[in-house]
TrEMBL record:
Domain of life: Eukaryota
Organismal lineage: Eukaryota, Fungi, Dikarya, Ascomycota, Pezizomycotina
Positions of the DHFR domain: 5-194
InterPro entries in the record: DHFR, DHFR-like_dom_sf, DHFR_CS, DHFR_dom
Name the UniProt record assigns to this protein: Dihydrofolate reductase
Entry keyword annotation includes Ribosomal protein: no
Amino acid sequence: MSPRDLTVIVAATSKMGIGRRGTLPWTGLKQEMAYFARVTKRANPGTENIVIMGRKTWESIPLRFRPLKDRVNVVITRAVEPPASDKAVKVGSFDAALRLAEKMDSDRRNFVIGGAQIYREAIQRVETKRILLTRVLTDFECDTFFPVHLNEDGKAEGWERVSKQALDEWVGETVAEGVQEENGTKYIFEMWERT
């Protein structure tokens, strides 16, 4: 059994850098973070979407924001101690996270939010149908990378960038079009689907 589908949501540089020393290499992208929150929270009434993450991603979320509000937080970890919240569910593997998602209401959307190892596992799964990418155009030094290179020309092996209209329809809002800029960092919202 597997959930209907998985959506990876990630912010990455054009070289697919996603982190540096365990944190995001950019700061102050409040509008981008608000987009992430809206998209991952938007669910049918009475339902909360699932966000699947690794332990390091969980620990990188500031305590005041943990668990991510109005979402079921699933943390993949081999650690013995559970996350400190009834809204966070600890599982021991990506397979266990998928089994948990399958048991829950099928109206939920299932988002994979990091980190690199969890992204790598998600990309290998047939259940992963789309990638919501915030392409950070400003160059940052990174030591952690997304496992698929999504080219700026809209092509990648096994993936294709879809139209702005398809992005808007899937996320349920009119997404800001073109290059956005916050605190000197430029970025674009994109959606990619498996071909």
